[in-house]
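Quick one: C-alpha cells for this chain, please?
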Amino acid sequence: MSDRVWETPETCYMEKLSAAAHREMLEAQGFAITENVADIPTALIGEAGEGGPIIAFLGEYDALAGLSQKAGLASHEPIVAGANGHGCGHNLLGSASLLAATALKDWLEETGTPGRVRYYGCPAEEGGAAKAFMVRAGAFEDVDIAISWHPSNFAGVQRETSLANCRIDFSFTGRAAHAAAVPELGRSALDAVELMNVGINYMREHMPSDCRIHYAVLDAGGISPNVVQAYAKVRYVVRAPELPGLLSLIERVKKVAEGAALMTETKVESTILAGVSNLIVNAPLMDVMQDVWDSIGPPPFEEEDRAFAEKIRATLTPQDISASWNQERLEERDVPLADFILPPHNENRQMGGSTDVGDVSWVVPTVQAYGATLAVGTQLHTWQVVAQGKSPLAHKGMISAAKAMAATGLAAIESEQLREAAWADLKKRRKGQVYTSPIPPGAEPPVAAMTVK
C-alpha cells in the first residue's frame, strides 16, 4: 500500500486515490469505515473492536508539489518535471499507522480483550490542517490515547514540541487607472501588499524571537506595469511556540494589513485558510514508547540497504549530514543508516516546524515515534526522500515503526494506570488553558483554496 500511494502523489485535500487505497485496505482488514470526516472528502476513519478504551492511530498520505523523482535512483531525475512527489514520506506514514492499527485489532480479536482501535486517515497535513478541522468537528472526543509517527533519519521517540501555525490570505482591492496619464486616480493594491510586507519586517524586531512569519505573493495584480493594480493577494504563515501567543500575533499582523490599506486607500479582507496548535508531548507515553523501542531495537538493515544509503549520502552536503545529527544533539558518526535507538532526554526542545498533530495533542494524550526510513543526512521535503520512498530500507523502517506504535497501543489498552497518568500529564501541560481552535467558527476546510500552494 505504501508503494501504491507513492505512485500516485497527491497534494493538500486532493488525495482521492491515496484515500481510496487506505479505505480498501481498511475494508479488507475488517474495519468499519466512516468517510467524509469533518466534511473533508479525503478524510476517513476505520474502527474495530468492542468496549474498553479507544486507541487512535493517526495516518497521513499527502504529498508535496514539485518533488517528482524516480524511485531507487541516487541522482535527481523527475518522473515528470514539476509534478508531485512524496518528499515527506507520508506514503510510509499512513501505511505504518494502518499496519499498527491492524496488528492491535488482531490481538484484541485473538485474546477477546475489550477495546477499540481506530485508524484516522488524515489528509492535508502539509499546510492544510485537516486534523485541526477533524478535532473541531469532534472526531476525537471519545479517544483515550492517540499514536502517530514520522519518517526520519533515526528511530526512537519524538520528544520535540512544534510551533502553532496559521495561514491567512490578505486580499487588497484598489482602483485601476492609467499609470502614466492619470496615476492620481489609481489606488494600488500591489502597493498595499508591499507596504504590508515592509510593516511586518519592522514588526519582527518587536515580537518574541521564537516566533516566525513568512509570506508569498499569490497575485501581484497582473503583468502590465502601465496599469495601476486594482487587486493583489498575499498569503501569510504566522507561527508561535504556543496557541495563545499565536492568536495574539495574528491580531498584530491583521493590524499591519489594515494600516497598509489605510495608507493606500484600498480595502483589505483576510481569510484564515488553516491553523494548527502547538504540539503537547506526553511523558508517561513517551517513557513507555522508549521502553518499546529499546526492546525492538533499530530496523534490521542489510548490506544492500547500507550500499544504497551511501549512494544517497553522496548527493548530500556535509552540512546536510551534520544538521541531522545536530537536530538530535548527537555526536556525528560516519554511518549511512542509524544502527541505534535515539536516547531519551528531558530537555524542552522544539522542532521548528508545525504539524496538525498538535491539535490532537491538546484534546487527547498523544505520543509519536520517529522511524528510520532515510539515509542519515537526508533532509525532508527533498527529492532524496522521494528516491528512497519505495526502497527496502524504507520498508524496514516503516515496519519497525509500526511495531513500536502497536506495542505502545497494547500497553495503553492493558494499563488503566498508564491512561490515567497520560491524561494527568496532558492536563498539567495545558496549564489550565482550554483548547481553542485556531480555525475560526464558520471556516470550512479549504479544499478549493488550497489548490494554490
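The chain has a mean pLDDT of 95.
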